[in-house]
Specification:
The chain has 366 residues and is of the alpha+beta class. 21% of the residues lie in helices and 31% in strands. Strands 12-18-17-16-15-14-13 form a seven-stranded antiparallel beta sheet. Strands 2-3-4-9 form a four-stranded antiparallel beta sheet, with no helix packed on it. Strands 5-6-7-8 form a four-stranded antiparallel beta sheet, with no helix packed on it. Strand 15 and strand 16 form a beta hairpin. The radius of gyration is 23 Å and the shape is globular. The two termini are 21 Å apart. Bound molecules: FE2/S2 (inorganic) cluster and fe (ii) ion (FE2). The site of fe (ii) ion has 6 residues, from helix 6. The site of FE2/S2 (inorganic) cluster has 9 residues, from loops.
Length: 366
C-alpha cells in the first residue's frame, strides 16, 4: 500500500513544537524533526543528518538553526547546511537535508510530504470551528497501532457506538437509526439519525439534555482526503423547538506514522460566546471522549491490524454491510488519488530533496 504524498497532513499540535527543543515524529514512514526558527515559524526537516545519519532531533536549536548532536553541522530552516565546525569550514555541496513545506492553522502544524512545488497552490481543508480567536478549543492525541484507513472506517461508521461504546456514546436507538451516505468524488458525507433516544449520561450532559429525557440525535460525518474528518453532532430534546438544538463540532485528523500505525489527532471547538461554560465543556468533552477512544477504539483498531497483518485489505474479501457505504467511498477515493499522485516519495536516501543551494540532488516527482 502506498501513501498519498501530495496532500497536507497534521504533523503535530502547535503546542508540541517549540523553539527550544527539536521534536521528532515519524510521518508517512519518514523520520521528521520539527522545531521553530528565530521568527517562531514551524520548520520540518528530515530527521537524519547527511553526514552519519544521526537524528537531528537529538540536537539543539542555535540561532534559529538546527545543530547536529554528533559532529556539529548546522542546518538552516531551508535544510541547507550553513556551518561546518571542522577543517577549513568548507560546506560540502551535498550537505543538506530535505525541508518539508509547513503551515500552521487550527492549533496544528501541517506538513506537505510530496512535491514541494505543488504545496503553495493547495489550501488547507476548512476547520473554522477551531479558529482560536472565535472558539475555545481542546485537543487529544493517540498513537494507534493500525493503518489510518481502519481509523477512517471507524469514524465513518458510527454504528459501532452501540457495540464498542455501550456505556458512553451508544444506544440501541442509535444503532437502529437511519443512515445516509454520499460523496462528490472527493469528499464523503455520512449521516446517522436517531429519534427519541435515551442518551448516555456523558452525551446528555454535554448537550444539555435533562436526565431521563429522550432526545433526537444526528451525527454528521464529513471525510476529506487524506484522512481529515469533521463530526457534527446535533442534539435536542424530543419535541423541543428546533432553536434549542445544541451542536458539537470535532475534527479528527489521521496521519500515517507507518503503514500499520497512525497519529490520531482530535480537536473540539465551542464558540467563545458561550463564556466559561464553553471553556469548561470543551475540556470535559476532550477528557470524556479520550476514555472510549483510548480504552475501546484503540484496542479494537490494533486488534484488527494484528488480524490483517501485512495482507491487503481487499484481497481478504471483507464482507460488506450497509453500514460500510461511507467507508468504502473514502477508500475508493483514496485509491484513485494515490494512483494519480505524481510525487514518488523516495525512500532512497540519495533521492531526497536536499536543501543545497536551492537545487535538488535529483528530482522527485513530476
Ligand atoms: S552525524 Fe551529523 S555532523 Fe556527523
Ligand atoms: Fe469509537
Amino acid at each position: 500500500m502506498a501513501f498519498l504524498y501530495n496532500a497536507w497532513y497534521v504533523a503535530a499540535f502547535s503546542k508540541e513544537v517549540t523553539a527550544q527543543s527539536p521534536f521528532s515524529r515519524m510521518l508517512l514512514d519518514r523520520p521528521v524533526v520539527l522545531y521553530r526558527d528565530g521568527s517562531g515559524a514551524a520548520v520540518a526537516l528530515d530527521d537524519r543528518c547527511p553526514h552519519r545519519f544521526a537524528p537531528l532531533s537529538r540536537g539543539r536549536v542555535v540561532d534559529g538553526a538546527l545543530e547536529c548532536p554528533y559532529h556539529g553541522l548546522r542546518f538552516a530552516s531551508t535544510g541547507k547546511c550553513i556551518f561546518n565546525p571542522h577543517g577549513d569550514g568548507r560546506i560540502p555541496s551535498a550537505a543538506g537535508v530535505r525541508r518539508y513545506p509547513t503551515r500552521e492553522r487550527y492549533g496544528a502544524i501541517w506538513i506537505w510530504p510530496g512535491n514541494p512545488e505543488l504545496a503553495d497552490a493547495v489550501p488547507l481543508r476548512e476547520f473554522g470551528f477551531l479558529e482560536p480567536e472565535q472558539y475555545f478549543t481542546g485537543e487529544g492525541y493517540l498513537l494507534t497501532g493500525a493503518n489510518y484507513q481502519l481509523s477512517a472506517d471507524n469514524l465513518l461508521d458510527l454504528s459501532h457506538f452501540q457495540y464498542l461504546h455501550p456505556n458512553t456514546l451508544g444506544s440501541d436507538t442509535l444503532a437502529r437509526g437511519t443512515l445516509q451516505s454520499s460523496d462528490d468524488g472527493e469528499k464523503v458525507w455520512v449521516c446517522r439519525q436517531a429519534s427519541a433516544e435515551l442518551l448516555q449520561p456523558f452525551v446528555a450532559q454535554g448537550f444539555g439534555v435533562s436526565p431521563g429525557k429522550r432526545a433526537d440525535r444526528e451525527l454528521h460525518v464529513r471525510w476529506e482526503p487524506p484522512g481529515l474528518l469533521t463530526v457534527m453532532v446535533r442534539v435536542r430534546e424530543t419535541d423541543a423547538p428546533p432553536e434549542t438544538t445544541r451542536v458539537g463540532m470535532s475534527a479528527h485528523w489521521l496521519t500515517p506514522e507507518t503503514e500499520s500505525s497512525t497519529h490520531y489527532f482530535f480537536a473540539l471547538g465551542l464558540p467563545r460566546e458561550m463564556g466559561e461554560e464553553g471553556r469548561t465543556l470543551v475540556q470535559s468533552s476532550v477528557e470524556g471522549l479520550m476514555a472510549p477512544f483510548r480504552d475501546e477504539d484503540l484496542p479494537m483498531l490494533e486488534a484488527q491490524q494484528r488480524a490483517i497483518g501485512t495482507r491487503d485489505f481487499w484481497a481478504m474479501a471483507p464482507v460488506m454491510l450497509s453500514i460500510d457505504a461511507g467507508a468504502i467511498r473514502s477508500r475508493r477515493i483514496m485509491e484513485r488519488l494515490i494512483a494519480s499522485d505524481g510525487a514518488a516519495f523516495d525512500t532512497d536516501l540519495s533521492g531526497v530533496l536536499r536543501g543545497v543551494a536551492g537545487r535538488p540532488d535529483r528530482e522527485v516527482g513530476p
